[in-house]
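Cross-check.
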Amino acid sequence: MATKRMTPGFSDQVMGLVKSLRTDAPDCVASGVVDMSTGMLLSYETVDNHPPEVLDLLAGATLDLFQGRTVVMIEDVFKERRGIQSDNHFFQEILVNSENLTHLFVRMTEQQDVVAVVVCRKSVNVGMLFAQVRRVVREYQL
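Predicted model, tokenized:
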């Protein structure tokens, strides 16, 4: 009798994505996945301890970056002017440099409300960061 191969569930895929981002992104100190439709941080890995309130705010901050009121207004204007009738969003990747860290936010291709987040040391090679994160995100196609 052949055994049926089970495909991993969404939760397993999210945890796998976070782990792959954490190990494959250069100089990575944290990775996570945010579901903007629910406002939840679905999973994360970090080398440091962070206050829970900071982690709680990450999902909201990610939502503001990608789909804040003004961002959506800009997208709507461009869609109208270009005659585009689509629910897809224009902003797909956002790089933020803080004083000591580089933060890369990448919207998943299939599920536009899911965003992968990678935090690296500021010394990271940004080109390598984009290349590795894009490769991992393509592999997981959430």
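The mean pLDDT is 90. The chain is about 40% helix and 25% strand. Passed to J.P. for a second look.
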